[in-house]
What we know:
- There is one protein chain.
- The chain is mainly α.
- Helix content is 69%, strand content 0%.
- The protein has helices spanning 2-18, 31-42, 44-50, 52-57, 61-88, 95-102, 107-145, 151-170, 173-200, 208-213, 231-238, 240-245, 251-254, 262-290, 295-303, 308-317, 319-353, 360-363, 374-387, 396-423, 438-455, 474-496, 508-524, 538-541.
Amino acid sequence: xxxxxxxxxxxxxxxxxxxxxxxxxxxxxxxxxxxxxxxxxxxxxxxxxxxxxxxxxxxxxxxxxxxxxxxxxxxxxxxxxxxxxxxxxxxxxxxxxxxxxxxxxxxxxxxxxxxxxxxxxxxxxxxxxxxxxxxxxxxxxxxxxxxxxxxxxxxxxxxxxxxxxxxxxxxxxxxxxxxxxxxxxxxxxxxxxxxxxxxxxxxxxxxxxxxxxxxxxxxxxxxxxxxxxxxxxxxxxxxxxxxxxxxxxxxxxxxxxxxxxxxxxxxxxxxxxxxxxxxxxxxxxxxxxxxxxxxxxxxxxxxxxxxxxxxxxxxxxxxxxxxxxxxxxxxxxxxxxxxxxxxxxxxxxxxxxxxxxxxxxxxxxxxxxxxxxxxxxxxxxxxxxxxxxxxxxxxxxxxxxxxxxxxxxxxxxxxxxxxxxxxxxxxxxxxxxxxxxxxxxxxxxxxxxxxxxxxxxxxxxxxxxxxxxxxxxxxxxxxxxxxxxxxxxxxxxxxxxxxxxxxxxxxxxxxxxxxxxxxxxxxxxxxxxxxxxxxxxxxxxxxxxxxxxx
Length: 550
């Protein structure tokens, strides 16, 4: 067994070297742990539970369950297309590195843009997961004491959770490995316990027709006319619950440099984490929705600082059992936040390794004792904290953060997929690929993400105007990041990012030499193709300098 692991490690390191990097992180994660990391970040016991109230308002059970089915199929296309690229390029940089390899021109520009949106999305996901976890534990406290907790108290719990997750990740990859495995089983067993408990509860259950077809609209736009007042718009906004839940599976790519047999294990981790989450999530949501005894009462729990699912548990099973089920969700969310910090810090480490972030030398350091990017872990802690500060004043800010997470991550997800489609046969597939289904799946993914990005920049509650507590500041946050990215690019990023480092497979030198090769081809014509590359450097004569393999 030891010789097999050694051979896998050697092969992984060789492939990483071909991609331009040396092995720095400790490669100790199994394929199951890779899957468990993404599965834990998706965490149906986090996303579904903490954003359930938004879907209750925007579309009701129709958005919750029918919406889950529709969005699940589309998100699976995104995961499949990402997995195919990950198999060819299993690097910690993930999405932005894929973009640099797949773009035909302006490689570093594409990588820079994707990297910043990925970075924004990772920070926002970490912030929203831990704030959602705080809401869950506050709901447990309110059940136990009967006391309501205000926004400052919720923020305090959020801070404690975020601090715990940074500390756990600081202690080393072995601890993360163990906790990720525990997390995966906790989620699966936890869902099973909740589902069984709700169906055996001695209370009336809603019909499947109601569960999948009942419509509600409490966004405040109903009856106002125009697009915002339509039922279609309400259901579309409710889809944020599903789209937000099914995010974070790029984590399998970000921990690829720590995973054995990464070119197979990482893409399998991406796809299997999404597929299993979708199946288990549907069963969970149908069970929760069918057990609703008092729709208005469950919805009102959110206004009191609680969670509608927690109130549904209590209404169906009593206070003690309901509290127990909520605690199961809270523990799952704790694991989810820990895994999110893991992925977030690896992405920021890789981005800093390619000299993108200000202070990159600090964030790219690896702790020699633990084999983890300790400084990047605490950078992610600080930025997640700052992004969540508006939640001190308005809980609507939490849903804005979830929108930021969805927008940032899915822009970063879709861009390499688009570039891969435009690359056509120039892209050399890895050992895990989609074959003849690659093109239709890829284009479906790109179109869906384009719709999602527009949708989640729109107001979720009326009036949704600037200055009002209902304002969705996601467009502002995305705009600020875009401006920062442009300013930093011209302030020095264009001269240092993925450039001038002999380990890197892409950069300005490669683009210039590739352009010289193309010019020489045109100049040489078909008369004497052997002379077409005369006078060019050896690297420019090789047709794969653009990353075009096969």
